[in-house]
Amino acid sequence: MNKNIQTFLACESDYQTAEVVLFGAPFDGTTSFRPGTRFGPSAIRNESFGIETYSPYCDRDLIEYQIFDGGDLELPFGNTERVLGQIENYTRRVLEDGKAFVMLGGEHLITLGAMRAVLQSYPDVHIIHLDAHTDLRTEYLGEALSHSTVMKQVWNLVGDGRIHQFGIRSGEKYEFDFAQEHTCLHKFDLTGFSKTVAQLKGKPVYVSLDLDVLDPSIFCGTGTPEAGGVTFKELLEAILQLHQLDIVGCDINELSPHYDPSGSSTAVACKITREILLQITK
Question: Per-domain residue ranges for the chain?
Answer without folding.
Answer: 20-280
